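B., you asked whether I could sanity-check this one before it goes into the benchmark set. Here's the sequence:
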Amino acid sequence: PAGAGGRVVKSLRWKLMFMAMVAVFVPLYLINRYGVSEFDRFTRRALEDQLIDVAVMVGELYRCTQDDPQGGTALKPATFLALCDTFSLETDARIRVLSDQGVAIYDSARHDEGVDLSARPEVAEALLGEYDASWELTEDRSYVFYHCAQPVLADRGVMGVVLVSRHTGPIVGAILRMYQRQRATTVMALVFSALAAALLSWSMTRR
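And here's what the prediction gave me:
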């Protein structure tokens, strides 16, 4: 019957459109997820490497504030503190310098000075002479804070620890922008595939 034939044609058209959209959506979704995952992993590793570099530089400067064998001082404490403030501003990171007992003697945020931080896991490891890092969520669970603890070594052992912290706000912002662009691209691809499938199905079933 003509009615039954028309229903078959319409069903075939919808199936072709659905299959075309699935064929476009699934690869795009997997590629986008993989791309974001790789970007996130790479940038987080790059962030940790940057924090390590800052910690090493600050540690070397801290070492220079100690008296040399001739009784002189290579770097004045005031100069050291000013340099730490500069590093903190340029890298958007929080820098804390701890004594060999884990007590903060400098904090770029001016919050933990005089506080014993030796109980922090990464600090405890650094006080043993080994680099360590940790992370934690912010209170609103929007960002992750990375904490890198670098020991400052001297002939007599560990003379201090540099603790550098920074949140992943810029990374999260970049990922959100990637998701927005990916959504827009996926929607356009789905619309195009639906139109192409509709045109193809119409040309195949019009007779």
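One thing to flag: The helical segments are 2-64, 77-91, 121-127, 169-205. Otherwise nothing jumped out at me.
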